[in-house]
Design brief:
alpha+beta; 10-stranded antiparallel sheet; two-stranded antiparallel sheet; 4 helices; elongated; disordered C terminus
């Protein structure tokens, strides 16, 4: 019992001390609040004394109003600087976007120009394909039939109507071109198959350049020309090919048999090859021949080398094509715009 009373006395003492501490704390807070309130409620008189004889201006306020006004002014100034900085950043961002937009517009204009060039190339391809199919006797399907492009701006492609406007117009043109090319695959494959089947024929006729050097050029064409030595007009019976030097390989322009390897005062060292279909080819002014009479050669086989023998003004190859007893223009059998 005595122990229980002892514990109760201790509890009362602790509770009393705790309540005293709490009371003291709140009293301190109250006193601090009163002092702060009195501080902010302190009266201030602000006087404005002009240097002239004007009346002195004075007004009364308290610390709280002054502190609040100062805080408002500082807040407004800080807000001004903050939003001004944001405005500068926004202006820089707008400038960058404007520059990017100009670059994008320039790229778009360049893309449109390239698209225009593509459409023009497609038109030329269409015309060439139609002519080739007609010459080869291949029927052209309706999907790739010829249709003129109307307008200078290629407003319609291959007979189709323009279905979109604005920036999507180029996209529609490309789609139409893609569709056309997909439909043109089959005729081109037919041409390839026909050329493959006729490959033997192309090797039996003189259809390539007689010089292996891709830098060769035509120094004198077939037909009426001024003689380089006499200066008189005469009929040149072949085509002269030159590389400005001797020693470049001369090749057979078709399969055949060598029927002549000889020398002539005019032609110099020369070779004549007999081909099928009554065709003969002559290769003159050679440095020397690398084949023998009676030898069979294939197209592109080396038969000699460019020289300066016979009547010449420099190293070159004189090339002739004969059909029977007639001399014909070799350009009828080879495309003189391309080398082999």
């Amino acid at each position: 019992m005595a122990r229980t009373q002892k514990y109760k006395k201790i509890e009362k003492k602790v509770a009393s001390k705790t309540s005293n501490v709490v009371y003291s704390f709140f009293c301190m807070i109250k006193d601090a609040a009163v002092r702060v309130f009195k501080l902010f409620d302190s009266k201030l008189t602000i006087m404005i004394v002009p240097h002239s004889q004007s009346r002195v201006i004075n007004f009364q306020t308290n610390v709280f109003a002054l502190a609040l006004g100062t805080a408002l002014v500082v807040g407004i100034v800080m807000s001004f600087f903050y939003f001004d900085r944001k405005a500068i950043k926004s202006s820089v961002a707008i400038s960058q976007l404007t520059l990017q937009n100009r670059e994008t517009q320039a790229s778009l204009d360049e893309l449109r120009d390239e698209n225009m060039n593509l459409m023009q190339a497609a038109k030329r391809f269409q015309t060439s394909l139609s002519q080739s199919l007609s010459l080869l006797g291949i029927a052209e399907s309706s999907s790739v039939s010829r249709a003129p492009l109307s307008g200078s701006d290629l407003s319609s492609l291959f007979g189709t109507r323009e279905t979109v406007t604005g920036s999507l117009r180029e996209t529609e043109d490309v789609k139409q071109l893609t569709s056309y090319l997909e439909n043109a695959v089959q005729p081109v494959e037919q041409i390839g198959k026909m050329l493959e089947s006729q490959n033997t024929l192309f090797t039996e006729i003189p259809s390539i350049w007689p010089l292996k050097n891709p830098n060769a050029h035509i120094s004198m064409a077939f037909g009426a020309n001024e003689h380089p030595i006499t200066g008189q007009w005469y009929i040149h019976k072949g085509i002269d090919f030159s590389t400005y030097r001797s020693g470049d390989p001369v090749i057979a322009t078709a399969n055949g048999q060598v029927v002549t390897v000889g020398y002539d005062a005019s032609y110099g060292n020369y070779v004549i090859i007999k081909h099928k279909h009554g065709i003969y080819t002559r290769y003159a002014h050679l440095m020397y021949a690398s084949v023998l009479k009676g030898q069979f050669v294939s197209q592109r086989d080396i038969i000699g080398y460019v020289g300066n023998t016979g009547v010449t003004t420099g190293p070159h190859l004189h090339y002739e094509v004969h059909i029977g007893s007639s001399i014909v223009n070799p350009a009828q059998y080879i495309n003189v715009k391309f080398s082999n």
